[in-house]
Amino acid sequence: MKPTKEELIDIIYECLGEVNEQLPKDQQIQKSPDASLVGRAGGLDSLGFVNFIALIEEKCAYKYGIDLSLMDTALREDGALENVGRFADSLFHQLKKTPL
Amino acid sequence: MRGLLISDFNIENLSSYLRKEPNAPAIDSVITSYGEVFQTLLDDTAACWSERPDFVVVWTRPEAVLEAFGKLLDCCPVNEKDLNAQVDTFSAALRQASKRTRALFVPTWVIPPFHQTHGLLDLSPTCGVARALMQINMRLLETLERVPAVYPLWTEKWIQLAGSIAFNERLWYLGKIRFSNDVFKAAARDLKAALRGVGGQAKKVIILDLDDVLWGGTVGETGLHGISLGGHDPAGEAFVDFQRNLKALSRRGILLAIVSKNEESVATEAIANHPEMVLKLDDFAGWRINWKDKAANIVDLMSELNLGLDSAVFIDDNPVERARAREALLQLFVPEWPSDKRFYSQSLLSLDCFDRPSLTDEDRQRTRMSAVDRERKESKLQLGNLEDWLSTLKTIIRVEELNQTNLPRAAQLLNKTNQMNLSTRRMSEADFHTWAREKNRRAWTFRVSDKFGDSGLTGILSIELNGSQARIVDFVLSCRVMGRKIEEAMLSVAIDCARSTGVKEVYANYCQTPKNKPCYAFLRQSGLTCQDGNTFVWDATQPYPLHGAVHLACEDARHIEKRPVGCESV
């Protein structure tokens, strides 16, 4: 079974929580759809982004048995990484297309 | 604290966890470019060494630093000699780099389980990857044995803690990060524990409650035969195992003590006479078994043991007592404790606060020494007069120059002694040895024994000679032997040595810390002249008197004057 959008947002927040464990308080990403993920408005640095993507892939594989390779796709869609909400939308569409 | 992380994979996640992990010490790390391990280790002019790091971590993949091991992974034939030679080359580079830091940590080599899928061939002498991995790790450990300031760490433990996702191929291909973050978290915790241990901040005492901690049930109500301990009962067996593990820790030099709300006679009878008790009264350095507030009892007990509250761990099954102790005694470490007795041993053995860099004879004997201390104190109470009591002790102090044999214990003492410590310098074995080898410096160790037993190596003294003046740099004495005229004997050795080189004045600069007031109190009444509050001076044209109750035996008596009751060569 594929995750609903709400479940995906929960996964994203869970992953952000883990990534935030490594970040100083003032650099942590808020668990909110508007929170900037990467880019000029702030967000994760390259290492944080790698950790975040790997966690998302891992959790999707563990919870739903879906193998994703987000580096190939997540970066291609315009604005997909602008904020948490856009990323969730993009991920949801991506999953819809991915066979179980 | 400043760390330097050297690796052949992306180790930034470890750096983040070292910075964020809440336990002391606070750490800021510098990371070298990955893949430049040998260059960094061998080049002492590299920028990363310009500011001496407090510690270094060198974490490598075996296939990256040992070409022969890489070939083995590719199923190519490999000569064992070549493999060993490459380990030796790596080890030599580590030894060279270790001179530039206080502590160099080397996580042992691991490989992902998918490299160990050759079935029966995994352990084959000709091409077994698993066998070769064990061999190279053993070779590395052997070549690093007794190298000061080098501490191998067991990576396999972190891998086990992280489980099946320890090796993360996603992170590897996305960012050249070899392990999952659970591995780095475990490594950060262990590194911090190791740094506390190297810095002499390891816990020294476990204070235990009795009912539902050492045994099940309330001994005051059921009597010793009604408590749950041993037998064919899951909880009873768990309590016995817990006691066994406590006993094992005591063999590592951790003192055990009791603070319990109970009738002392009933509780001690249970400890002495219950057939399944692993721990006996002699295993405890002290106890407070009464109905008073536990926090007050802990303070009292730690004062008796001459140890600070920050060196103790308090284990109690009752969350209210734990909260009370935590609130009243901020320096005391009170771990959360499981309600299920079957997890007591696991919780105890998971505590990372007892980590220390070496295990000395003194550590192994500490419990016995504490029992002897108790006897000694009781005899002091019986013989009210201090001079009478001192003369009955028949104290012998053996003085040795600092050497390779006594160095590990001396460094341990230097790094963990707080109270009788003139300058409270913290130095690694290597640094202390290098410092003491300078021509104008001398360092000695002091072993104390008396009619009750041997207290082991309990004192360090070092001086620096500068023309007509000599400065006492380290004046360190374990709290176990304080107040028995050992302090005076140490001063006497320092002053005799200075006199033999023509020094006119010996001085000691007291560096105040929150914990070394006993040192100041001693200096105030030592007979040395106090010059400006913290500088104490002795006119070295005069010898410093040795107390008649102590017998000083020197391994090297060249520079120490002989007196009727004083030094004699051994």
Description of the molecule:
By secondary structure, chain A is mostly helical. Chain A has one domain (5-97): Non-ribosomal Peptide Synthetase Peptidyl Carrier Protein, Chain A, CATH 1.10.1200. In chain A, 53% of the residues lie in helices and 0% in strands. Chain A has helices at 5-20, 46-64, 70-73, 84-97. Chain A is globular. Chain B has 570 residues and is α/β, with parallel strands linked by helices. Chain B folds into three domains: 2-198, SGNH hydrolase (Rossmann fold); 205-350, Rossmann fold; 363-569, Aminopeptidase. Chain B is 39% helix and 19% strand. Chain B is built from 22 helices and 19 strands. In chain B, strands 10, 11, 12, 13, 14, 15, 16, 17, 18 and 19 form a ten-stranded mixed sheet that branches. In chain B, strands 2-1-3-4-5 form a five-stranded parallel sheet, sandwiched between helices. In chain B, helix 1 (12-20) links the parallel strand 1 and strand 2. The longest helix of chain B has 19 residues, at 80-98. Chain B is globular. The two termini of chain B are 43 Å apart. In chain B, 45% of the residues are buried. Residues 557-570 of chain B have low confidence and may be disordered. Chain A binds chain B through residues 18, 21-24, 46-47, 50-51, 53-54, 57-58, 71, and chain B through 10, 12-13, 16-17, 19-20, 165, 168, 170-171, 174-175, 177, 181.
